Amino acid sequence: MAFRTTLLYGDSGLEAEPNIQTKNLLDFSDSDKAIPLIEDQVYDEAPLNTVLRLISVHSLTCGGLKASVLQHYRRIVNQSYGSHALNKVLKMQKMGLIREKGGHGKMQCEYAPMLFQQMKKNYDMLPENFSEAKLNDMAYAYSGFSPLLCKILEEGDRVKWAGWPKTMLGEDLDPISDKDPRGTCIFVIGGLTRSEMALIRENLPNIALITTSALITGDKLLNNITNI
Fold first, then answer.
1. What residues contact 68, with CB distance under 8 A and at least 6 apart?
2. For residue 16, what pLDDT is reported?
3. Which residues belong to the signal peptide in this entry (predicted)?
4. Where would I find the H helices in 2-129?
5. Residue 187 has what DSSP assignment?
6. For residues 82 and 185, what is the distance between their CA atoms, to the nearest angstrom?
């Protein structure tokens, strides 16, 4: 199971400040030390979801946290927000949203870690030059971060979905190769953010219909995590 970083990034326009904070964190995504930005948010009594989002992004983007760093985050979250917040951190570990490097046992997630460094390079997820004024810039909605889902769809559209599972209309008609005017329909399982949907509409005109199992945000994801 791959958790998209955009779910923890916040929905553009509604949570601009968390976007900037997360972008700053992504710029130092290979750090294996506690991030002062996260500590400051805890000590400043920022909303719990903001803190959990930043811890999760730190973990996901660097392939897991060192045991000492994870223990430090647990301690300050427990001291500042209480045991219910610590329970949520533990639940996020079991889901794979927060990982311990080399961890094992009942708190270890069975899913493989996110290869953020590799994907960041392959899909140019953090472009050096971008414009928030240009709607056709994949990075505009997330203050300089290009969502992985949108970049993968962009690649699929560029290669005319070669190698992708497709549904044909009729026995001999391939609406993609024949440039059917009705365009392509995609279905995203697991949910889609409004910002991702807007990026797809603006940048991938060949996709005529976007469907998904749910409209989601980072807060919805975190709020639905129940205590252990």
1. none
2. 41
3. none
4. 5-9, 16-26, 36-43, 48-61, 67-81, 83-95, 116-122
5. E
6. 45
